[in-house]
Amino acid sequence: xxxxxxxxxxxxxxxxxxxxxxxxxxxxxxxxxxxxxxxxxxxxxxxxxxxxxxxxxxxxxxxxxxxxxxxxxxxxxxxxxxxxxxxxxxxxxxxxxxxxxxxxxxxxxxxxxxxxxxxxxxxxxxxxxxxxxxxxxxxxxxxxxxxxxxxxxxxxxxxxxxxxxxxxxxxxxxxxxxxxxxxxxxxxxxxxxxxxxxxxxxxxxxxxxxxxxxxxxxxxxxxxxxxxxxxxxxxxxxxxxxxxxxxxxxxxxxxxxxxxxxxxxxxxxxxxxxxxxxxxxxxxxxxxxxxxxxxxxxxxxxxxxxxxxxxxxx
Length: 314
What we know:
Elements: H1 2-29, H2 36-61, H3 69-81, H4 89-112, H5 118-137, H6 148-155, E1 157-158, E2 161-162, H7 163-181, H8 183-193, H9 205-231, H10 242-252, H11 264-283, H12 288-313
Antiparallel strand pairs: 1-2
InterPro entries: ABC_transp_permease (IPR001851)
Transmembrane segments: 12-34, 41-61, 91-113, 119-136, 157-179, 207-226, 238-258, 264-281, 293-309
Membrane topology: Multi-pass membrane protein
């Protein structure tokens, strides 16, 4: 365990160095990078993806994956958006978060109890709830602009600090405590490293997988809520392609597709790195398709590096 913590520390330091190098490169390529408005744009973008990445980190530590994160965000918001006319922010927020938690729970049950591989389970969920969201809303956006508390999740401030930043920090701290210091989090690593061995140690694999997927769904709903408030509309088309970026963040942050590795600290730094990369590509005028190619290359590169390390060190 001591070696693992030391290894994580080294990886996080390397990520911080990479982050600062990217910032220097971005500043030299485009002086507009450090403009206040641009920095705000980076922060608002990474807050949304980072919150989802915290949930994905828990799932991937277990050796599982969730491809439905973008669809969960869209479906949850679409479900809550059906009740916008109620005029109650708290009611709409509750329904949005509950929908995400429930879909995540169903993913967990499918993977843990029914034994559907997480890749297949969440791929199916992605398609089903995306289209259910379209049917529920007839493909039309809802507008929560009259819901003051709802809108404040993206546009409000506490003093000089934007509320999305506060939400991000709270979710990060809760995730950090859960993953690093709680019995549940430590069990995530054990299951991800050797799930068969846990059968003889009293760890309830099924329950923990359901918890991880449920929390991931909750994070997706929260992120979708913030994004909807930021845009001023609840769009059932939201979140397309988010899964690729979120997986890139978590892998870059030190998680493995094979389980047993990853940290919330690494995910935080990786979120900032991906945010800087995406923003730099935007400043260079690259298309969304080109940006997706870069993100995909990051995923492939990190997996290849992981495999090379495993072969070298065993």
